[in-house]
């Protein structure tokens, strides 16, 4: 099986994001104000998503250790 394109991954995953870790329009607007448009904004949204993933994993581990 070949590598999926980035847009295909986004479309495949879009409806599976837990709403507790999703990006709101408020988040998008804050990032846009902080980073403008273009590559800086794209990178900032990636880092935001990575941070959300870390938060989700920490919550999962905390729930498993109870």
Task: Summarize this structure as a short list of keywords or feature phrases.
66 residues; mainly alpha; 3 helices; 68% helix; globular
How far apart, in Å, are the first and last alpha carbons? Answer: 38 Å
**Shape designation:** globular
Query: Averaging pLDDT over every residue, what do you get?
Result: 89
Structural class: mainly alpha
> What is the H/E string?
HHH
Helix content: 55-70%
SS element count, helices: 3
Given as residue ranges, the uncertain stretches (5+ residues, pLDDT < 50) are none
β-strand number: 0
Biggest sheet character:
none
Query: What percentage of amino acids are in beta strands?
Result: under 5%
Radius of gyration: 14 Å
Account of the protein in words:
68% of the residues lie in helices and 0% in strands. By secondary structure, it is mainly α. Helix 2 packs across helix 3. The longest helix is centred in the C-terminal third of the chain and has 26 residues. The protein is globular and about 45 Å long. The relative contact order is 0.10. The mean pLDDT is 89.
Describe the SSE topology.
Elements: H1 6-13, H2 25-35, H3 39-64
Helix pairs in contact: 2-3
